[in-house]
Design a protein that fits this description.
The protein is of the alpha+beta class and about 170 residues long. It is built from 5 helices and 7 strands; from the N terminus they run ααβαβαβββββα. It is about 30% helix and about 40% strand.
Length: about 170
């Protein structure tokens, strides 16, 4: 799952201009994952949607399988945004933290792996929660000057609390 390389930057980035271009791409790639998390946390549909390509897929099935959940594969930006935000609307508060990102760029496509800690709390009763530590495997595509998620696979390393109370 992890994107492993012994260098942060490509060995092809030999001159200053190439390094700047690659650093910009890496920042934009990571920003797609930040938009995914913060869009949920702020309940901001526009910000959340900006993380995805129109034909994106989000696969939460590997994570949910750890506690017996069976969610569908979410396909299409509009379906992803409405399903996730509607599931949490007025019911669940979230916070997402991203760490350990690794990025591999291949022209106009990229792969990002990261660990995301996602806290989910019932709005009416914060003592009911699910704290998830999830490895993410993300395929992205260039969209002008930004990058967007084409496919996102979310697994689960561990959790605390009651995910079934949050996710059903």
């Amino acid at each position: 799952m992890c994107t492993i390389d012994e260098h942060a930057l490509s060995t092809l980035a030999a001159d200053t201009e190439a390094v700047v271009v690659e650093l910009r791409d890496r920042t934009e790639i990571l920003d797609a994952l930040y938009r995914f998390g913060l869009g949920q946390d702020l309940k901001d549909a526009e910000l959340f949607a900006s993380a995805f390509a129109a034909d994106a897929e989000v696969d939460f099935r590997p994570a949910a399988a750890k506690w017996g959940g069976r969610p569908p594969l979410l396909s299409g930006r509009d379906t992803i945004v409405t399903t996730i935000l509607r599931t949490f609307a007025g019911r669940v508060d979230t916070t997402h933290q991203v760490t350990n990102p690794r990025i591999a760029i291949d022209g106009d496509t990229a792969r990002l792996t990261a660990l995301v800690e996602a806290q989910h709390l019932l709005t009416a009763d914060h003592s009911t929660f699910a704290l998830l530590k999830n490895p993410y495997d993300v395929e992205l595509v260039r969209d002008g000057r930004r990058w967007v998620v084409r496919r996102m696979r979310i697994d689960n390393a561990w959790y605390l609390g009651d995910p079934t109370a949050i996710f059903g």
